[in-house]
Design goal:
6-stranded antiparallel beta sheet; 22 strands; about 30% helix; 7-stranded antiparallel beta sheet; Rossmann fold; alpha+beta; 2 domains
Length: about 475
């Protein structure tokens, strides 16, 4: 993994599930491939065969590295769930790669999780005091132990145990739980993480993003609602509300950065959202420029919107090398300085002699922005005016994004002018918080990383951060 100063921000993971479709594991493979941008550290698939037995393959690496025709052929059956992971809470290692598979005398089950629980430490201590033994350091495993520990009546349907367990969790989550007969799709009551349901023939598909539906040929049906558990089995879809407190505080970074442009999140297309945010960015902060250049790939939509609103030509002034390995070896600081040029290059002929409006989605640590500005000027750009299609990131995230300390955030330590000086731009402006809502015509969003207004209690997260001197 790159040093912390060189890393981009990352989402924790993505989940995918298939019910009632032959060769479900192969479909899950393609679904995970479409969600690969949500996690590159590890992946796994659990399937259910015709006899109701659960089988699992998982490993560290990309989907194409972990799976092949031979091992996928061992995962037969018409039901499967899968997971792609980026390491945040719990750290790395094969033991933390999901889905988790649990053997139990009341029936085996598997689960996969996207998000982060802010009361995980307290729940883990509570469960360990009651005799639970954890296989991993991931907070995702907590739900499984709660489902079993909180079952007072073993003859009740499992949905009751799941509802009891979900009501003990605090934080951001989209869980997919699979038993021998059904899949449960669960979403946190704040609506912080996306989870959607699609139809595929006579079966069903569940995914963190709708872009995976297009990959496998499924048709979007609806989102899992905040505070809802959707049971998928031979009865079709059945809905259970585990909480009456329902908000739609989707993580703003899903729209700004994480999700693929071809995904729709709660009825809003990601590309359209980013393009509109670019238009609003021009209205709020026009730049004295000759051309507009976006930073590949997540900022290109916003750059298009900025160019359209301004009337300036949109140019491909930066090219991303798609063949740089995710574990590219950088043995020295000198090589790290060259690393950004290995994956990003300026098009000299396009930017030479031009004033460039450089549109990016966010500034986290400032290191990458400084290198890109320097690269453009070395390529002949006379001025570089940086425009950011989100507000300054001033506060840590505890919901599954790997910015958990103030030290990692340049805007937590410096003013806009201080950040401008640090990255070497001729001017710098950020999108307003209000524009985030207007871009998607939304009333609610989680903007905690920009405002410090957290939608959930943070007692455990703050305790851990304070203990480490981070918060």
């Amino acid at each position: 993994m790159l040093p912390i100063s060189d890393r981009e921000i990352h989402e924790e993971c993505g989940v995918f599930g298939v019910y009632g479709v032959p060769d479900a594991a192969s479909l899950t493979y393609y679904g995970l491939h479409a969600l690969q941008h949500r996690g590159q550290e590890g992946c796994g698939i659990v399937s259910v065969d015709g006899g109701g037995k659960l089988h699992r393959i998982k490993g560290e690496g990309l989907v194409t590295e972990v799976f092949n025709e031979a091992n996928l052929a061992t995962l037969d059956g018409a039901m499967a769930i899968g997971h792609v992971r980026y390491t945040t809470a719990g750290g790395g290692g094969i033991e933390n790669v999901q889905p988790f598979l649990f053997r139990h005398n009341t029936g085996d089950f598997a689960l996969a999780h996207n998000g982060n629980l802010v009361n995980s430490s307290r729940l883990r201590m509570y469960l360990e005091n009651k005799g639970s033994l954890f296989q991993s350091s991931s907070d995702s495993e907590i739900l499984a132990h709660l489902i079993k520990k909180e079952t007072k009546y073993h003859d009740r349907p499992r949905i009751h145990a799941i509802v009891d367990a979900l009501n003990m969790l605090e934080g951001a989550f989209a869980f997919v739980v699979m038993t021998a007969n059904r899949i449960y799709a669960c979403r946190d009551k704040y609506g912080l993480r996306p989870l959607a349901i699609g139809r595929l023939g006579d079966g069903w598909v569940v995914s963190s993003e709708t872009c995976a539906f297009d990959t496998v040929g499924a048709e979007f049906v609806r989102d899992v609602e905040p505070g809802e558990v959707v049971t998928i089995d031979d009865h079709g879809l059945r809905s259970t509300d585990y909480s009456m407190y329902k908000r739609h505080q989707m993580c703003a970074m899903e729209y700004i950065y994480f999700a693929r442009p071809d995904s729709d999140i709660e009825g809003c297309n990601v590309h359209a959202y980013r393009k509109e945010s670019g238009r609003l960015l021009w209205q709020e902060s026009p730049a004295p420029a000759d051309i507009v250049v976006g930073v590949p790939d997540s900022s290109l939509s916003a750059a298009m919107g900025y160019a359209e609103a301004s009337g300036l030509p949109y140019e491909m002034g930066l090219i991303k090398n798609k063949y740089i390995g995710r574990t590219f070896i950088q043995p020295s600081q000198a090589m790290r300085e060259k690393g950004v040029r290995m994956k990003l290059s300026a098009v000299r002929t396009i930017v030479r002699g031009k004033r460039v409006a450089l549109v990016d989605d966010s500034i986290v640590r400032g290191t990458t922005s400084r290198r890109i500005v320097t690269m453009l000027k070395e390529a002949g750009a006379t001025e570089v005016h940086v425009r950011i299609a989100s507000p300054p990131m001033t506060d840590p995230c505890f919901y599954g994004v790997d910015t958990s300390t103030y030290d990692e955030l340049i805007s937590a330590r410096k003013s806009v002018e201080g950040v401008r000086e640090e990255i070497g731009a001729d001017s710098l402006a950020f999108l307003s918080e209000g524009a985030l809502y207007r871009a998607g015509n939304r009333r609610e969003l989680c903007t905690a990383c920009f405002t410090g207004r957290y939608p959930t209690a943070l007692y455990t997260a703050k305790e851990e951060a304070n203990k480490d001197g981070k918060f």
